[in-house]
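User: Predict the structure for this protein chain, please.
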Amino acid sequence: MDFSLLPKQIEAVFRENSLLAKSILSQIYQITPLAMQKLKRERIKIMNFCGSHEWTTTHYGLRYMIPKEIELIPGPGCPVCVTPSSDIENIIKLAMEGFRIYTFGDVFKLPTVKHYKKDEVGSLAVAKSMNADVQIVYSFIDAVDDAKHNKKPSIFMGIGFETTAPSYAILFERNKVPENLLFYSSLRLTAPAAEYAIKLHKDKGSIPISGVIAPGHVSTIIGAMSWDFLPKEYKIPAVVTGFEPMDVIASILKILQMIYTENISYTELEYKRVATREGNKYAQNAINKVFVVTDAIWRGIGLIPKSGLALQEKYSKYDAKEQLGIKDVPWDYDLPPNCKCAEVTLGMAYPTDCPMFMKACTPAKPWGPCMVSMEGACSVWARFGSVQKVLNIMDEVR
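Assistant: Here is the predicted structure, written as structure tokens:
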């Protein structure tokens, strides 16, 4: 097989197949009123759990193509958006005290609520401008390689979901991490956050979430069956979905079909070309050997039980918090004034509901964390939310 042709084949099937898109959209329009009757609701709320799904939805204008009665809301699937301000504040302090800090590019720009030394340092980017040793890396292995050579006391800022965790775990498991490199875990687990959001919508008395577009890349690790609690315990259809526009509209159709037929027993797997029901056992084993599940704080939201990963005691010599005596403190509200990132992250508001959106908060100068990452809903809406662009795409599809 010539793998160089694969991207073009994917584009041909999942982006440029207008006949297939028309067929799926036609079926969506036909079944939506039937699903609404079944639910006895005037609207059907579906959560895009993942920031990449929000990107696809907004970039391709999918909200404008589906019936207005279907409400696609963002979800908490952006790891940068939910990294607590206190974690970044701790890392900034360590950078200013002389540690070499390795971080991904998005975290580099993440603003904090409390600043190091009053108003001076409110992000790693500012810390670097004041001569702190902050290095942007593409992966944990880049940090490991660099730390081996420079011998300097160093810390890696470990954020991400289950997709990223194996890349950390495998290096620890194989004893490849040098002792001068500590690991600051801000890893989070996706399923507990999805469950939290679903309960919140119900408790707040808003329209309940009737379907979840589950994250495709996370599910390549944990497996589609990890989302079975949604159909089994909550009777909410869940579809593990890829990241092309055709993936997303196909999943919306599948969710509506599940609602209408009331056949809601297991998670559907739309992303079969990559994910499986069982997931990647090798990666799961690596995670379980190296990390332990803990309660964790999500930015703007607070503590979600059993939603984080910390290094097991066997690897405690690498644990930055333990080795440096960093104590977890009770969560305090950690968003800047007037920021609605928490509501946006949980699907309780859209980015345009925030008074700071595209005023004091822009991709060039983020006020809140959802404007930082390429997966943040506010950043996605700021960069791709143009109505005219959406209308152009609709004309092409029609």
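DSSP finds 18 helices and eleven strands in the chain.
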